[in-house]
Amino acid sequence: MSSQAIGLFDSGVGGISIWQAVNTLMPYEHTIYLADNKNAPYGHKTKDEIIALSEKNTEFLLNKNVKLIIVACNTASTNAIPHLRQKYHVPFIRIQPAIKPASLQSQTKKIGLLATQSTLQSNMLQELKEIIPVNDVEIIGRYGQGLVEIVENNRMESRETYRLLQKYLNPMLEQGIDHLVLGCTHYPFLIPQMKQILGASVKIIEPSMAIAKQSKRVLEKLNILAPENQKAKHEFYANHSTAALKKLLKNIPEAFIKKLEF
Ligand code: DGL
């Protein structure tokens, strides 16, 4: 058993989609969330830049004595995880696009993947594509340029957002996708808008509950789960604005949200 917190980081508020699943599955765990929003978006930074930022975020969380780190960002996971695992001893949970389950379930054998530019260009995505269990599945990848900024600035319901999503999703629909994989943790906050465009025939796949379950399995295996009667504390830090965090967490009164320099 361990009362140390679970750490999570992202370039901004996207990882809150993962945090919500972690808190639902393990409401007794303390959490510390870091939004490096001074440096957002990560999606068009180089691999070396993403590694350097991921190291800085990891060290921030290690200084807060976390027992496990969830890299709640596809871009950081796909580009920096091997490096982080080699350099630090803490267990890391990575996020990667759920291409495998989508491939297994697809009837049309066409799946859409909406992700950041760095995720689409990463080696890990190439590796994932090579191990797709169904080899006649076609992946239609698209860079969701501008979507991270929309979520960071809480403009999910604007006309501009709808138009941008139409631009990215309509070509996928025309090509016959029946699954859309969300390859960026910011994108689940746009699911209601995406559903309006995709209708009921396309299933949207996002990994937050799978990641929460994987985190629980690792904590169990290492025997460092918190006691189930623990009253959880949640700390959220950002190095630019805390407005988006405050908005998304307005129903979590116990959330402690603070702006810090780092
Ligand atoms: N939430 C991050 C991800 O999953 C956003 C990346 C970005 O900042 O561009 O990739």
What would you say this structure looks like, in words?
- This protein has about 260 residues and is an alpha/beta fold.
- It is about 40% helix and about 20% strand.
- It is built from eleven helices and ten strands.
- The strands form two sheets. A six-stranded parallel sheet has the order 4-3-1-2-9-10, with helices on both faces. Strands 6-5-7-8 form a four-stranded parallel sheet, sandwiched between helices.
- Helix 1 crosses helix 10 (about 210-220), helix 2 (about 45-65) packs across helix 3 (about 75-85) and helix 8 (about 160-175) crosses helix 9 (about 190-200).
- The radius of gyration is 18 Å and the shape is globular.
- Bound molecules: D-glutamic acid (DGL).
- D-glutamic acid (DGL) binds near residues 10, 73, 75, 116 and 184.
- The site of D-glutamic acid has 16 residues, from helix 3.
Core attributes:
single chain; 262 residues; alpha/beta; Rossmann fold; 2 domains; 6-stranded parallel sheet; 4-stranded parallel sheet; 18% strand; binds D-glutamic acid
